[in-house]
Amino acid sequence: MISDTVFALSTAPGKAGIAVIRVSGPKSFSVLKMLVETLPEQRVATVRNLKYQNEHLDQAIVICFEKGSSFTGEEMVEYHLHGGQAVISGIFEVFTTIGKLRMAKPGEFTRRALENGKLDLLKVEGLSYLINAETKLQKKQSLKLMSGHLSAKTIEWKSTLIKALSLAEVMIDFSEEDVPSNTVSEISIIIQGLLLTLTEALIGYNSAEIIRNGFEVAIIGKPNVGKSSLLNYLAGSEKAIVSDIPGTTRDILELRLDINGLPVYFYDMAGIRKSSDPIELLGIDLAKKKAEQCALRIFLMNPEDSRS
C-alpha cells in the first residue's frame, strides 16, 4: 500500500535564520516540480527560487533523495528556507492547498523509517536519546546506539540461542544412539556463556541508565544545618532562600549540574524534625520519599550534633 505524502518542520519553531522542512512520500518530487524550473540532482544541495504561479515564495537550498536513499526510505525533499514565519506559512499553505499534502504526525518520519527498514527499534531509541541529549556522555551513548552496536549484539545473542535450541531439538527428534554423547554438555556451555554475556550487558545497561537519566543526590538533615547554603554554593548563585528561621524550605528545590558529561541532580528539601505545622509535615514527608529514591544522600549535621 502506497503511503500518503507528509511534511513537517524539522527545526525548532519560531523566528530563526534557517528553517528546514522535510517532505516524504510519493508526491514529494511532483510537488517540488510545481515550485522550481528544474529538479536538482539527487542528494546534491542546490539553490532554487521557489515560485508558485506569479508569487515568489523564497530562495532556498533544496535536496532531493530518491526512494531507498532517504531517512524514511521514501522519496523525500528537504527545503532549507529562511526562518521567518511568513515564509514557513506560505510554503505550508502551498503544500496543503495545492499539493494536497498533510502535516506529519509527531514521530511519523521515524515510524516510516522503521517500517521501511531504514532503522530498527534500537536505532530509533538511540535517535530519540540523541535529540534529547544534553551532556557529552549522553551524546556519545546515543550515537553508539544509533550506530547499530547493540543491534549487532542482539543478532549474535539470537543466533546463539537458536544454536542451543537446535541441539535440544536434535535430542528430542532422534534416538540416543544417533545423538553425540557430548550434546548436553555443548548446550550447557553455550547457555552458560550466553548468561555471562547477558549479565555483563545488564551491568552496562545500568550504567547507561545513569548516564541517560542522571544521578540523583539528596541533601538531607535537620533544619538550619546548611542544606540550602550547600545548594547555593554548588549552583554558584542564590537558588534557595537561606534563613535562620527553621522550616523555611518546604518544597523540593532541584539543581542540575553537568559533571564531566554526567547529569547530576541535587535536591534541597525540608529539614527533618518533629513539627505540628501541617504544611511543614507535608514537606518533610516529600523529603523522606525523595531521599529514598535518590542514589546518594548527603546528610548534614551541626558541629554540636557530631559531639553528642
Largest sheet: 6 strands, mixed
Assign the structural class, choosing from mainly alpha, mainly beta, alpha/beta, alpha+beta, or little secondary structure.
alpha/beta
Mean pLDDT: 87
Strand fraction equals 15-25%
The run of helices and strands is: EEHEEEHEHHHHHEHEEHEH
Number of DSSP helical runs: 10
Q: In angstroms, what separates the terminal alpha carbons? A: 77 Å
Radius of gyration: 29 Å
**Ranges with pLDDT <50 over ≥5 residues?**
none
Shape: flat
Spatial strand order of the main sheet: 3-4-5-2-1-6
Using DSSP, what is the number of strands?
10
**What helical percentage do the residues reach?**
40-55%
Molecular structure report:
With 308 residues, this protein is an alpha/beta fold. 44% of the residues lie in helices and 22% in strands. It has ten helices and ten strands. The chain has helices at residues 28-33, 85-98, 108-115, 121-132, 136-146, 149-173, 183-213, 227-235, 278-293, 303-307; strands at residues 6-9, 16-24, 46-52, 55-65, 76-83, 102-103, 215-221, 253-259, 262-268, 296-300. The protein has a six-stranded mixed sheet. Strands 8-9-7-10 form a four-stranded mixed sheet, with helices on both faces. α4 (121-132) packs antiparallel against α5 (136-146). It is flat. The model has no long low-confidence stretch (mean pLDDT 87).
